[in-house]
Design goal:
By secondary structure, the chain is of the alpha/beta class. About 50% of the residues lie in helices and about 20% in strands. The chain has a single domain, classed as Lambda Exonuclease, Chain A (Alpha-Beta Complex), CATH 3.90.320. The relative contact order is 0.17.
């Protein structure tokens, strides 16, 4: 049994308990990454830098990190599409210089509390801890903390995606465990997704608030505890609906899952 559980692990378990077994227990790693994950990692890297140092050379930071990620993919024998990479470099030029202005427009005045803040908090009635990293925490003059998670995407999210239970549970859990870690009143913590849109014609950086009241937090914790219980008791039931509906499982019709 692992010593911790992350939101990524919870999300995979919620999709399919058997897929969770393959990835986290049997250590079957099929997806090695691609140009999109490399782009996302590079953009996140720039976000970390620019909120701390406004004088950061954004293009240099992006290009260096992007090349580093692409090199790692090449070493893993992942085929890289050069045309797509060139498009992404051009798209990054439009996006990078909008990150800090979007934060300043949304929050006006703020101080940076932490970047990539680690969470490793004990789960009640279990030996496991919840592990995660909060992309950005800022504090506004009204003494509220704002937990922000960067998400790279193409054109953006529709209303259904923005309200999706599992998508928003990430911030719900981050808020809960951030409050526990620092002994804060959760009423003084707000959560936000910041969409970094690669192909959008406008509003390339969209920051929107996600609400997480007591009931939603209770439901998120219940799901987390349910996952922990079933993982501990080796209940690895396949969710056949996740094979083709919505998730696009990489193990579908492979030797690992037939």
């Amino acid at each position: 049994m692992r010593s911790h559980i992350s939101f990524s692990e919870l999300k995979i378990w919620n999709e399919c308990a058997y897929k969770h077994k393959l990835v986290y227990i049997d250590n079957v790693k099929k997806f090695l990454g691609n140009e999109y994950t490399a782009f996302g990692t590079a953009i996140h890297h720039v976000c970390e830098k620019v909120v701390v140092d406004k004088e950061t050379d954004l293009l240099c930071e992006f290009n260096t990190k992007f090349l580093e990620e692409l090199t790692l993919l090449t070493e893993k024998k992942v085929e890289i599409k050069k045309d797509l990479v060139n498009q992404m470099r051009k798209q990054a030029k439009n996006l990078l210089f909008l990150i800090l202005p979007a934060l300043e427009e949304t929050f006006s005045s703020f101080e940076v509390v932490s970047v990539e803040e680690p969470l490793y908090e004990q789960l009640a009635d279990t030996e496991l801890k919840f592990k995660g990293y909060i992309d950005l925490v800022i504090k506004t003059p009204d003494q509220k903390y704002h937990v922000i998670d960067w998400k790279t995407c193409s054109w953006g999210w529709d209303s259904k995606r923005k309200a999706d239970r599992m998508t928003t549970y990430q911030l719900t859990l981050y808020k809960n465990f951030f409050a526990e870690k620092h002994g804060l009143d959760s009423n003084n913590i707000e959560t936000h997704f910041a969409l970094l849109k690669r192909t959008a014609k406008s509003n390339n950086v969209e920051i929107f608030r996600v609400t997480s009241g007591p009931k939603k937090t209770e439901n998120a914790i219940k799901l987390l505890n349910k996952a922990v219980y079933n993982i501990k008791n080796k209940n690895h039931i396949k969710n056949r609906l996740s094979c083709t509906y919505g998730y696009g499982c990489e193990f579908y019709k492979t030797k690992h899952c037939r």
